[in-house]
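Lab notebook, bench 4. Continuing the backlog of folding jobs that were queued last week. Each job is logged with the same field layout so the records can be merged later without manual cleanup. Today's entry covers Cytochrome P450 monooxygenase, a 1171-residue chain. Filled in by technician R.K.

JOB TYPE: sequence-to-structure
TARGET: Cytochrome P450 monooxygenase
LENGTH: 1171
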Amino acid sequence: MLSQSFYLLGDAPASAKTIAADENASLDDLKDLIASHFAIVVADGVGFTRGDDALSNVKEILSSEEAIAISVDGHAVRAVPGPKGLPYIGNFFEVFPDHLGNHQRLFEKYGPVFQTTNMGGTIYHSNDPDIAAIAFAESDFFTKKITESHPLYGIKTPEAGVFLGDTDTPEWKVTHKFLPPALGPRAVRHYAPTMQKTIESAYKVFDELDSIGQSWNVYIYMLKLGSQAVAKLTLGMDMEHFAHKDAPVHEMVHLIAETLHLNKKVTSYGSWYANLPFGDPKLLRTKKARMEVLVEEQIAKAQSGGVEDLPLQEAAERAANMVDYAVRATDNRGEKLPKTSLREALVVATGAGFTTTSSLLSWLIYGLVTYPGVQEKLLQELVDNDFSDDMEITAEFTDKLVYLDRFIKETQRRHNPSFQPGRTAKADLILPGGYKVPKDTVIIPALHHIHNNPALWDNPAKFDPDRWDTPEVKNRHKAAYIPFAAGPRMCIGFNFALQEIKIFLPKLIYRYNFVKDGDETIEYDPMFQLIRPNNLPRSAISVSARTSQSVEPSHNITDTGNYAPLRGHMQALSPSYASRAHTSHAPAPVAFGAINTLHDDTHTRLDSERQRDLDEEQSGAELSFAARGQGNSNSGTPFYTGEQPGVTSLIDVREPLPRHIMLKPNPPSVIPQVDHDFLQRKGALSPLLMYSHQEVLRAYFHHVHPMLPILHLSKLQEFELPNAITPHGMLLYWSMAVVAVNFVPSDVWKAESFTSRKHMKDTMYNRAKCMYDNSGETDKEALLQAALLLSFWHSERDSHSQPWYWSGVAINWCQIIGLHRDPDAARVNPLVSPQRRDLWRQLWASCLVRDRWLSLTLGRPLRIRLSDCDMPFPILKDVLNDLDTLPARLRDLYVPKDLSVMVKHWVLLIQLSRILGDILSLFYQQLGKQPTLSQFDTLESELNAFVVPASLSAHPSPLASFSYYHLQLHLQATLITFYRPFVSTVPEGLSSGAEESWMARVRSRMESAATQSNGILDCIAREGLVSFATPTTPPLLVPAMHVHLLGCKSDNRLTRRLAFNKLEMCMTVMRELQKTHTSASIFCGVFGEAIRQLMPGPLDETIWGVTQIRRPSTAETMAPGNTQAANSDDFSPQPIVTDDILESLLNETSTYNFWESMNMPDQSFIDYKRC
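JOB STATUS: finished
OUTPUT FIELD FOLLOWS
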């Protein structure tokens, strides 16, 4: 380790910190280290300078005699700029009343981040999507904490949990558990009929306004419409807004609108004003109190008739509205949403619901009358999809309305109602660009300005719904379009809002033609919490006018933009739409040398064969480029060149080049539409409900990850929100779920409408398989991880061969990437980052463990020969390295507290699996030589030296206890496997005359290991740990059961009885495992049939099952005449039926060869599995 002084460029060198660093570390590692010391949010932007020189060599940086200056994205670290304000008032008059226009002016003047002060409070603003993504991530740097500078401070309500409360509070956690099921996609679809009735109830008012030719203010009527639906679906309240055209706005709507107006005003004037005991601050508190009273009344009504407690998802799908749901919903611990949180959460859901949708509906109608041709195209799309005024609108129907979806997105981009989703800095930090942000500073990702940023959007001022079908928009930055914000605190009701819009808008467009009344400039209220058009009058033409126009289907509306003209006065499409045609220009691939000239020469036209040759040459050039050490260790695609003579040996002109190289990363591939539609129909692109999603993640990282650490813990951040998972990410998501479903509470599969746990596993596997086959995934590591997880799947349809198939796929990927070889064998490979190196070791070790135990269980040859491999096996710290980087909230929620103990067990299992591989190679090869006594003694010494350390904790967690017992089961299974071949034979080199005593010792140790297995099962059962069993547990019982079954053949009656009792105990546990694990069902069937052949007397059918079939024998087993006298001793030896299934099972020299029966003809297998 070397010590060096570092300081922030822009600060005085005297402020330098002395930091110790490894001189052999990569540049990226050094950047990460420096970023952690200086709270630089994105380490990739860190640069090192000495004087005027930029440094990139780690040894040069660390050996410099001068202190090293740190830049960020090429900039000196700097304070966030902003306009100089007036004393105390600050920038208030420079921002208001036109805050949208003035903020845009300030972005143009100061860049992507600036600060303003208003009445003593400072707020930072950004139109940079990178900074927005950082702020919304709820990480160690930012959180939602409503301080005095926050835009929501005036209406902060901690009890609400969502929207008006801080993240790091118990209230947010409990509310976030209860509310998502009620606002998830499935529950929202349940509300669709009520939404449709709401819009249809408004027809009579709009028809009347049309009949008298009266224009009307759009926002007022959209406010009535939105609040009518939201109040019905949240509070069960009928606001009667459309009883007649002059029906008053309900008191609750007035209260919420006035509260938002007062809050904007109060917070704009500063914290001193908010605390005044009179005036607007007092009025704001009074309005809030009155809202709470009205909500309490609705809660009391819902409870008055008595309520039935229901699991969260069931309550969500059966409830008539959210208040009905909230008083019914019970979590898996029997707890309900606390009353104070219930009241405040309903206030928020009601207010946020209708203010957002009413504003968005108003802007959508503004778009209909402002942008030529849009209204006509939307109507044509409805006609072409056979829309009728009396049809029931479903999610399946709205999914067909491609142009409607684009229109809504473009409206939310150009005129998004939300404006101020603030987040608060948790520490002093440095943002990309080198901007310093002090702790507790509020930063606002300015949605309107992000959505209209010319650096992100082509001609952003142009309203163009068709831009959403261009590659540029499809491949945009993930935070370039965030109408509902992003991260864990994004709008919880976005599903509700979008469905409401997609039901209301088609009904309105089909029935009415909207036209603008006058040319008045549209204004917005700067003192309202959202951006809404205040003065938007419209007149409506009734449905009779629509019908008379005889709009005809065009049958060609999906992608081309060629919509058929409409008849009547809407006949002509606007010229801008009629003539527009989009041309996609995909970025050209990077090439090298002369090839680049050919690709860049736009005047050169190449035939397809020559173009293909050039593309292939480019791939070779890229390979050469990467092999010379110019790859990317963070985001590159791993490529293993192979052993000598490998492909890159051709360019080893000076010294051997690394065999593990990084090719340039490919951009995410777009799933073809036909595949996307197929995956959508299969449910492979729709994640689980939030509650189910969280339980699956928790189950995975509690039960699966410790025994199969093939993912970085950082995946938790990527998968934290189900709707944020990318389409390609769904492959790993479903693969994780296949194994995790074994451990989730039963209310998860019930909430997802599955009939059983196995039914849910079936579906998870089918979705993962669909993604593997159809998503076009090219990430080799992700494909490897998915294959390893899918190797825990059993299917009756293919004779349970899936584990062997998928483990082979995983091992193939390992060898393609080169995970069997040490990337640092010659010297440290700078192209492989430490994080990637750790992951590779874990992946390789996991494949080895899976290979050894599947080979044993399925009676298949070993796929991995360690003589070909030199990849180091992982140690404890390799697995735990990324634990400290995980945010505390995710660590507490998803990571078991005894993870380190369980990982120690996994590291020991790797060691034991290596021994097992040696046993199988030496003693079980079909064409192998007879093992020698020396080989036997060597392996026995290794097994005797293998010790499972007892827990140091007096009260280990159940997970740690099961992990300990599970490793013990592995050890006993290995011991039995080791001794089994020598029950009836002896190794070469044993002295003459010692055979009998030697074999007796071997048998004794084998039987002792089987008995030890029963003792371990007894501990697991007594401590209530059977439910923790993994898919690998049932096979671990089989070695002991096999020994006990052979004991049932003994001539000694007592020995038979004791062996039967031990076997029955194992079968009892296996029956429990059968409820979750398919492989346990097979073992139950095989052993049940075997014991009935040995002991045909009465047996407990709950344990041994019922005989349902007869199989053809390969040897005569009955006395002449097929008769046999009944024996009073039910456990006396009986003739053995040596048929194809049982012969090897009852053979003392076999191990698990009864699995070979799975290769019998199909009909025989069909007959067999009925048992």
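OBSERVATION: Residues 1140 and 1160 are 8 Å apart (CA to CA).
SIGNED: R.K.
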